[in-house]
Amino acid sequence: MSQPTSLERTRHMSTDGKVDRRTLLRVALAAPAVGALASCAKPVVEKSAPAPTLGAKVDGSKPLEFFNFDGGYGKKWTEMPLDLYRKEFPQAAVKLTSGQELKQQLQPRFIQGTPPDLIENVGLDGASLVAKKQLYDLGPLLEMESFDQPGVKVKDTLLPGVAEAGRYDGVKYEMPYVFGVGGIWYSQPLLDKHGWTYPKHWDEMIALCAEIKKAGLAPWTYQGKFPGYLANPLLMTAYKAAGPELKKKIDNLEPNAWRDPAIIQAAEGYQELASKGYLLEGTQALSHTQSQTYWAQGKAVFIPCGGWLENELGTIAPKDFGMTMAPVPGWSKDDKAPYETVTGGPGGALIVPAQAKNPLGGLELLRIMLSKQCMQNFAKLTNSPVVVKGGTDGVPMSSAAASMQKAVNEAGTNMFSDWQFRLWYQKLLTNFESSVGVLMSGDQTPDEWSKQMQKYADETAKDPSIKKYHV
């Protein structure tokens, strides 16, 4: 199962380095027949230049390997694009490999110069791979013809922001495949039953937690073994109090950014959930699947997670559960950013290694995956939104999907993709997420935690071996 870091990738991430995907809507579009549109596609070209362009042809005799992250989305969605590739190149030996420990499984292959041709990256340090020139420039793909929409370029089939996502110094190395948003989840029927209203500010949240506890329920749980799930809500509460400048300072590794009063007070607020007994007993020892299962069984009212939650739970949640997501509460009515602010947008990262044996084949498979038929199939199988236009038109949505769509609509221009430091600086991200676990255990005061986080950020800023980026 997936171990997220953000919602955007969406990079869902956990303390063991696994990244979370960022998902959003439940979609149920019926996909067209696999072969129906394949004949109109023109394969990618190969020529002497390193970047493929329209007109050059993939060597159909070369083997092709796709590495799939076997997490919340599973692997069934890969069958259609792989079958379409096989139909286009009957002589190619097409191989699907998968797993959850990408660092252990793929880092040795990058070192040996034998990486797969296309990777669903959930766990590898993308920024480090870019800095080491290990990734293929995907920019030319945007100018290619869509696989199943003749005469239409790939870039013109994508939702706003998708073509711009996954860039480092302006070069596109990662292709998102889902559209996500993250927040706090609860059962709307449960709140209705008790006459409770979802809180918009932290003092309201704490007051409601007291009522919930009196009613004999645990107010909160979270994925205790993977405190990265709680890291994003903490940051969002601080962001709403301080405004966009806080994000800019933290992403740019500015001195004392983590010492901002908004960060410290948000840490105080979330630590209060533990100190006042508002967490489900044993939460910090729970895995993501355990905590989510207990939540779906009604043993806790609130849980933080990304949009893949419904799909990952499967049939565990009762049909009448009324799964609902809402934005993270702000701090107070004096916040500088509105309550409706959420992190969301294009998420996930499909990458083509520069040293792959068949990089043009990997690029062609990626072009196939971005076809409308494959994206609709992905949406149908994973209950997730996709990055192509029209992917959810006229689709009946579950309560979970409807609540996420509502959050996106109400956020409007107050939605941002992610905290960039999470994408740029893997070690800092890992330290941040593990530090949230220390904070919630009470082993550090919020002020001590803030100082520790600033130390981690300063170490990153001063490390000459780490390439720096700025917003």
From TrEMBL:
Residues 456-471 have a biased composition (Basic and acidic residues). Transmembrane segments: none annotated. Signal peptide: none annotated. Gene3D superfamilies: Periplasmic binding protein-like II. Residues 450-471 are annotated as: Disordered. Belongs to the bacterial solute-binding protein 1 family. This is Carbohydrate ABC transporter, N-acetylglucosamine/diacetylchitobiose-binding protein. It comes from Kribbella antibiotica.
